[in-house]
C-alpha cells in the first residue's frame, strides 16, 4: 500500500487526486490531507478517506478536531505551517502531492524534498520562487520529483528515460514545445482586455481549475511560470523552449528531436491523467478519464502567442534571465495583482503593470538562501500592495 499526503486536498488538483486514489484504493491510501479555507469540504474528505492526519490553519485547529470527533473520525489535527511540514515529512508517507496554490506551498514542498519523498509537483510557484535551491535539495536529499502540471508531465513522457543523466545534445533533443490554450481571451486586443471581469477571466475554455491559475491562464502568466518551471525541471534555457498556442488543449506539450521527430502526448484535458501517470510511474493505472476520440476531437490548430496583448509571458522570461530573487519577486507581485483583480480593485490589464513596477523597484540578489527568498516574497508583496493602492 502506497501512502499519500495531499497538500491542498480541498483544491482542484487535490480533488482530482482523491478521485484517482478512490479508483485505485487497492494500491493507494490517503494518509494525510490539508485544507485552508473550505474546511467543510476537508471534513467530508476525512469522513470518506479516514486519513491519519489533517492539517488546518492554527486558528481552526481546535474546532476542526471537535468536528472530526463528532463525525466519528480518528483523524489527528496538526496546525498551521508546522502542521503542513509535518504532513510533508512524516516517515509513514511515501508520496507527497504538492497542490497548495502559490508561495504558501514553498516551505511544505521543500520539507517533502528534504524528507526524500516522491513528490507529485503541481505547485509550480514553489519551484519558480526557489529554482536552484529547490533542485539542489532534490539532488541532495534524493527526492523523486514528478511533474503533474499537464505540460511538464507531457514533456516528461516524451523525453527519453533517465534524460537527466545526459545532456540534451547527447540525446538529440533540439527543443521543448510548451503548449498553451491561449486562455479565454485568445484573439482579443489589448484595448478589449481593459474591461474584462473576473467571471470572464476564470471561465477557462478547456480546463476546470482554481481561481488563481485560471486568471494566470488568462494573462498567460501561467505559461510564463511554466516556462520557468520547465527550465528548472528539465535543466534547459528559455531559448530551448518554444511556446505554442494550441487552443484545443488536446496536445499537452511536445519534444522536438534533431532527426526531425516531434513526440507529443495527447489526451482529453483532464488533470487525472497526469496525476495517475505520476502516481503509478513507471507503471500505468486507470485514471477514470474517457479515451481520446480523434474522430470527434476538433481539428488541432497552432498559433503564436500575442506578446503585445499578453505581456506576462515576456515578463516571466525576463525574470528567469535576470535570475536570483527575480522570479520570486515576479511571483509575489503576480499573486497580489491577481488577488486584487479578483476583488475588482484593479483592471485585468493592470496585472502586468503591477508586476513590472515591482520588479523595477527591486534589487535582484543571489537566491541561495530560503530565508532571503521568503523575506523577498513578503517585501515584494508589500510593494505590490502599495502600488495597487496608488493605482486607483
Ligand atoms: P485551488 O485554489 O483549487 O486549491 C488550492 C489549495 O491550496 C486548496 O486546497 C487550499 O486550501 C490550499 N491553500 C490555499 N492557500 C493556502 C495557504 N495559504 N496555506 C495552505 N494551503 C492553502 O488551486 P488548484 O487549481 O488546485 O491549483 C493548485 C496548484 O496546482 C497551483 O499551484 C496551480 O498552479 C497548480 N496547477 C493546477 C492545475 C489545475 O488544473 N487546477 C494544473 C496544473 C497546475
Ligand atoms: Mg499547466
Descriptive overview:
46% of the residues lie in helices and 15% in strands. Strands 4-3-2-1-5-6-7 form a seven-stranded parallel β-sheet, sandwiched between helices. It has helices spanning 12-23, 39-49, 61-70, 80-89, 106-114, 124-140, 150-158, 190-193, 198-201, 211-219, 221-234, 272-280, 312-322, 326-342, 350-360, 370-391; strands spanning 2-7, 28-34, 53-56, 76-79, 95-98, 118-121, 144-147, 173-180, 241-245, 251-257, 262-266. It has 16 helices and eleven strands. Strand 5, helix 5 and strand 6 form a beta-alpha-beta unit. Helix 15 (350-360) crosses helix 16 (370-391). It is an alpha/beta fold and 392 residues long. The chain has three domains: 2-148, 3-Layer(aba) Sandwich (Rossmann fold); 155-280, no CATH class; 323-391, RNA polymerase sigma factor, region 2, helix turn helix motif (Rna Polymerase Sigma Factor, Chain: A, Orthogonal Bundle), CATH 1.10.1740.10. 49% of the residues are buried. Bound molecules: nicotinamide-adenine-dinucleotide and magnesium ion. Magnesium ion binds at residues 149-151, 226.
Strands, helices and their partners?
Layout: E1 2-7, H1 12-23, E2 28-34, H2 39-49, E3 53-56, H3 61-70, E4 76-79, H4 80-89, E5 95-98, H5 106-114, E6 118-121, H6 124-140, E7 144-147, H7 150-158, E8 173-180, H8 190-193, H9 198-201, H10 211-219, H11 221-234, E9 241-245, E10 251-257, E11 262-266, H12 272-280, H13 312-322, H14 326-342, H15 350-360, H16 370-391
Nicotinamide-adenine-dinucleotide binds at residues 8-14, 35-37, 99-101, 104, 122-125, 149, 207, 209-210, 212-213, 271.
Amino acid at each position: 500500500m502506497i501512502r499519500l499526503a495531499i497538500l491542498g486536498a480541498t483544491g482542484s488538483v487535490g480533488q482530482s487526486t482523491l478521485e484517482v486514489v478512490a479508483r485505485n484504493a487497492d494500491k493507494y491510501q490517503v494518509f494525510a490531507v490539508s485544507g485552508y479555507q473550505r474546511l467543510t469540504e476537508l471534513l467530508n474528505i476525512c469522513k470518506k478517506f479516514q486519513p491519519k492526519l489533517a492539517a488546518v490553519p492554527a486558528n481552526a485547529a481546535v474546532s476542526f478536531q471537535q468536528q472530526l470527533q463528532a463525525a466519528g473520525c480518528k483523524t489527528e489535527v496538526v496546525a498551521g505551517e508546522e502542521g503542513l511540514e509535518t504532513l510533508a515529512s512524516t516517515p509513514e508517507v511515501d508520496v507527497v502531492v504538492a497542490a497548495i496554490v502559490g508561495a504558501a506551498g514553498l516551505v511544505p514542498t521543500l520539507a517533502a524534498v528534504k524528507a526524500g519523498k516522491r513528490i507529485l509537483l503541481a505547485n509550480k510557484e514553489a519551484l519558480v520562487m526557489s529554482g536552484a535551491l529547490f533542485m539542489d535539495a532534490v539532488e541532495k536529499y534524493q527526492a523523486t520529483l514528478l511533474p503533474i502540471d499537464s505540460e511538464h508531465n507531457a514533456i516528461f513522457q516524451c523525453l527519453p528515460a533517465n534524460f537527466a543523466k545526459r545532456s540534451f545534445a547527447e540525446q538529440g533533443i533540439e527543443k521543448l514545445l510548451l503548449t498553451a490554450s491561449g486562455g479565454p481571451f485568445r484573439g482579443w486586443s489589448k484595448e478589449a482586455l481593459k474591461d474584462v471581469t473576473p467571471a470572464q477571466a476564470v471561465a477557462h475554455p478547456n480546463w476546470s481549475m482554481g481561481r488563481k491559475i485560471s486568471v494566470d491562464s488568462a494573462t498567460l502568466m501561467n505559461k510564463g511560470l511554466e516556462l520557468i518551471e520547465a527550465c528548472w525541471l528539465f535543466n534547459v534555457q528559455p531559448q530551448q523552449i518554444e511556446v505554442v498556442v494550441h487552443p484545443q488543449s488536446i496536445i499537452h506539450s511536445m519534444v522536438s528531436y534533431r532527426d526531425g521527430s516531434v513526440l507529443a502526448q495527447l489526451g482529453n484535458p483532464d488533470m487525472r491523467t497526469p496525476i495517475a501517470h505520476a502516481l503509478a510511474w513507471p507503471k500505468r493505472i486507470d485514471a477514470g478519464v474517457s479515451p481520446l476520440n480523434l474522430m470527434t476531437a476538433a481539428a488541432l490548430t497552432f498559433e503564436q502567442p500575442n506578446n503585445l496583448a499578453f505581456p506576462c509571458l515576456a515578463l516571466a522570461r525576463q525574470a528567469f534571465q535576470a535570475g536570483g530573487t527575480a522570479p520570486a519577486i515576479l511571483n509575489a507581485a503576480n499573486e497580489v495583482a491577481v488577488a486584487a483583480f479578483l476583488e475588482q480593485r484593479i483592471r485585468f490589464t493592470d496585472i502586468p503593470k503591477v508586476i513590472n513596477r515591482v520588479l523595477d523597484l527591486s534589487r535582484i540578489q543571489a537566491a541561495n538562501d530560503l530565508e532571503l527568498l521568503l523575506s523577498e516574497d513578503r517585501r515584494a508583496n508589500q510593494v505590490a500592495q502599495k502600488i495597487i493602492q496608488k493605482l486607483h
